[in-house]
């Protein structure tokens, strides 16, 4: 059974940091493209960051370049998103995504940036 379980979200002040985690199970984590997406109310879901494989290429949305960092721990089958210098516009539900011949989604986790 495939599972993607996000954790680490919450409320943070502007300028603060959070680290999201996505614990993966039920598929070959190292061979999948792993990504973080986010969706704000009234907006479409957008790609935040993607990691093609362990040690492979990484891509970021322009809006988060220099502030967010995606990483993956092969031994723990876990995907991370380190978010620094958070802004109110980063407020969204963040989703973990796994993609290869199949596409899997996590349940999503709320991140709220507000003073």
Please give a quick description of this structure.
It contains no helices and eleven strands. With 115 residues, the protein is mainly beta.
Structure description:
- It is a single chain.
- The protein has strands spanning 3-7, 10-12, 18-25, 33-39, 46-51, 58-60, 68-73, 78-83, 92-99, 103-105, 109-113.
- It is an all-beta fold and 115 residues long.
- Strands 2, 4, 5, 6, 9, 10 and 11 form a seven-stranded mixed beta sheet that branches. It has a four-stranded antiparallel beta sheet with strand order 1-3-8-7, with no helix packed on it.
Provide keyphrases for this structure:
single chain, 115 residues, 7-stranded mixed β-sheet, 0% helix, globular
What's the total number of strands? 11
> What is the molecular shape?
globular
Q: SS-based structural class?
A: mainly beta
Question: What is the CA-based Rg, rounded?
Answer: 13 Å
Oligomer: single chain
Low-pLDDT ranges: none
Secondary-structure element series: EEEEEEEEEEE
Layout of secondary structure:
Elements: E1 3-7, E2 10-12, E3 18-25, E4 33-39, E5 46-51, E6 58-60, E7 68-73, E8 78-83, E9 92-99, E10 103-105, E11 109-113
Parallel strand pairs: 2-11
Antiparallel strand pairs: 1-3, 3-8, 4-5, 4-9, 5-6, 7-8, 9-10, 9-11
